[in-house]
Design brief:
heterodimer; A: about 400 residues; alpha+beta; 10-stranded mixed β-sheet; two-stranded antiparallel ribbon; 14 helices; B: about 230 residues; alpha/beta; 5-stranded parallel β-sheet; 4-stranded antiparallel β-sheet; 8 helices; about 25% strand
Chain lengths: ~400, ~230
């Protein structure tokens, strides 16, 4: 009870410095948690999402670019491959499924991707989870100029079933390069929380034969999503050897998760910089507790002397300062969850808007225990020097008046 | 057996030049339970040091200091702290109230280090000091006379066997000083506590039946007994 009183009164007496210090601790805790959660969740989302495919076949170039382009609908296409190459992989005895993709157009900045109906029916969003349509829609007829629109794209550009639109050439929106073809929206996808939500899907031939595209594009595709047959464990190695080592026209990106993991390996330095910034903020915040309490010790010398004269033990005062320091850190750590929610929430919104991948900041993560506990411990440690100063306060020297 | 018995007590401090300065040299001193004694002494005579030694805030270099049957010199610091909280009430010239706490909390804190905080007793004491309506005021919201009364209430809150008062009226005007002195003496008499008051104010000293000059007790004080 005595400790509680002393700590409460001290916090109240130094309300401003307590508030500033608490805020800096909350910033450090929020940053630490956000950096770890966003890093781990985005890593898991990007390396774990494959759409139910094992590999991507495309033009010769970067595997990473190929995966980003066909699975995540980011980046430019590394180029096209011949239709015959698509047929070859599709007919490979150990390939269960090959789905063609063709791209090169957009509607108001949202990619238009040509594909076959198989994509909708055989893509796997997760165990037993497939793409589905919102009520009132249907899948497109591959022989007609019809479109199925991802939920995010539909919401952003305001497309509904029954609406028509004219695609624009290229992956970047340019008002001057509108195609003449008119497409009818026949379905809107249910939100899948995958990159498919950000795409406008039309029949493969729609892209291949779009006015203004080169004559070659009619016989080419941008890539093929490939699912290998179960049990054909060596097929991936075999195709990797065939296309990547022995051949020089095509790229076989396999397995998709490992290719994406390479991306995270490349940007690992960025994670480390963010973590370092968070550590530094934590260190500065702890130092601010130390400085604020240490400085206050001078003005509290008399109070400490009075308490000692009343019978307070040195250890009681030492404990009170440590408790005060730890409490400031603990309050900051708690407030850190608010900042965490803001930082991680904003990151999740941006990632979803840019990539279509959903992060869930509320999913429990070890850092949500470790960061607050660590900051509280660091705060308690920061209180050691001021507590020692309180411990050493000379009672008779600081009890006025002297005679 | 006296409540307080001092024998051959010596206390010295280190000077800036490294030498030692003896400030207390008391061959013997005793105070009976319930006794009220005033010590007179000029500035620098070691009045506060003497009280701090009796309270166990300072430790003697030599000698024994028995308070309530225990030799403070033989106790560890935490034991002295506990002994002080239980048996000694201390009233200061500048009151030494904790400004961040209310009047009630000041008294409760003093009790908390001793037998334990008893809110009802603290409120009774404030009531006895005519400060019932000031329980939740902070010291700076009170007059100096009221602050001194809170200090007295805090000093006697643990029913101490000995109350030490160091120039308790030094900061008060004559009217308040007389009232405070009367209150201190009455409170100590009511509770049976011995009172050892140090002052250089003749008016204060004249209120006591028993007055001793510190220089007669402390051989190290200026003009002290040889």
């Amino acid at each position: 009870m005595i400790l509680g009183w002393m700590v409460r009164n001290s916090l109240r007496q130094h309300a401003l410095s307590t508030a500033v210090t608490t805020f800096s601790i909350s910033l450090a805790t929020g940053l630490l948690m956000a950096v770890w959660v966003v890093k781990d969740q985005s890593h898991a989302a990007f390396t774990g999402f494959t759409g139910g495919f094992d590999a991507v076949l495309g033009a010769r170039g970067s595997k990473l670019q190929l995966v980003l382009n066909t699975i995540f609908h980011l980046e430019d296409s590394p180029g096209n491959m011949a239709w015959q190459d698509f047929l070859d992989i599709k007919q490979h005895p150990n390939v269960e499924l090959a789905v063609p993709l063709a791209l090169g157009d957009n509607y108001r900045g949202y990619r238009i991707v040509g594909t076959s109906e198989e994509f909708f029916h055989k893509s796997m969003l997760g165990p037993g989870k497939k793409l589905s349509l919102q009520s009132g829609g249907r899948w497109f007829d591959p022989t007609l100029r019809e479109a199925v629109v991802g939920s995010v794209a539909a919401q952003r550009v305001g497309l509904h079933v029954g609406d028509t639109f004219q695609p624009y050439h290229g992956l970047l929106f340019d008002e001057k390069s509108q195609h003449e073809e008119i497409y009818l929206v026949v379905g809107i996808l249910e939100p899948s929380n995958t990159p498919a939500d950000r795409v406008i899907w039309i029949p493969l031939e729609g892209v291949q034969l779009m006015g203004g595209h080169s004559a070659e594009s009619a016989t080419q595709v941008s890539g093929a999503l490939v699912r290998l047959k179960a049990g054909a464990a060596t097929t991936g190695f075999h195709l990797d050897l065939l296309y990547n080592k022995q051949g020089n026209r095509l790229t076989f990106a396999w397995p998709i998760g490992r290719v994406m993991a390479q991306l995270f390996d490349k940007i690992a330095w960025f994670d480390r910089v963010l973590a370092l910034v968070a550590y530094l903020v934590a260190l500065v915040a702890s130092a601010s507790i130390l400085a604020s309490l240490y400085n206050s010790m001078n003005e509290r010398r008399r109070e400490i002397a009075i308490l000692r004269a009343l019978g307070a033990r040195r250890s009681t005062l030492f404990g009170a300062i440590i408790a005060e320091s730890a409490l400031i850190a603990a309050l900051g750590a708690l407030a850190g969850f608010i900042l965490y929610a803001i930082i991680a929430g904003l990151a999740a919104i941006i990632i979803r808007a840019q990539v279509g991948i959903i992060l869930n900041p509320l999913t429990p993560h070890w850092i949500m225990v470790a960061a607050p506990a660590g900051m509280t411990l660091l705060g308690a440690l920061a209180g050691l020097a001021p507590a020692f100063k309180a411990y050493r306060t000379d009672v008779s020297e600081n009890l006025a008046p002297h005679s | 057996m006296p409540l307080l018995e001092i024998r051959n007590l010596r206390k010295s401090f280190t000077l800036p030049d490294g030498g030692r300065h003896t400030i207390m040299d008391v061959p013997s001193f005793a105070l009976e339970a319930g006794q009220h004694l005033a010590l007179q002494g000029s500035s620098g005579s070691g009045k506060t040091t003497f009280l701090n030694l009796i309270a166990g805030i300072l430790t003697p270099d030599e000698g024994s200091l028995l308070l309530a049957g225990k030799d403070l010199a033989s106790l560890s610091e935490p034991q002295r702290d506990r002994h002080r909280a239980l048996h000694v009430g201390y009233i200061f010239q500048t009151f030494n109230l904790l400004q961040g706490y209310t009047c009630l909390e000041n008294i409760l804190l003093g009790m908390a280090f001793g037998p334990g905080a008893q809110r009802a007793r603290a409120l009774d004491l404030l009531n006895a000091m005519n400060l019932a309506d000031k329980a939740h005021h902070r010291p700076r919201q009170l007059s100096v006379g009221q602050q001194q009364r809170v200090a007295v209430a805090r000093a006697v809150a643990n029913d101490p066997k000995l109350v030490l008062a160091d120039e308790p009226t030094g900061n008060l005007d004559p009217a308040n000083a007389a009232a405070a002195l009367q209150l201190i003496r009455k409170t100590c008499s009511d509770s049976g506590a011995a009172l050892l008051l140090v002052s250089h104010d003749p008016k204060v000293l004249s209120a006591f039946d028993q007055v001793q000059d510190l220089s007669n007790i402390n051989r190290a004080s200026p003009g002290g007994a040889p």
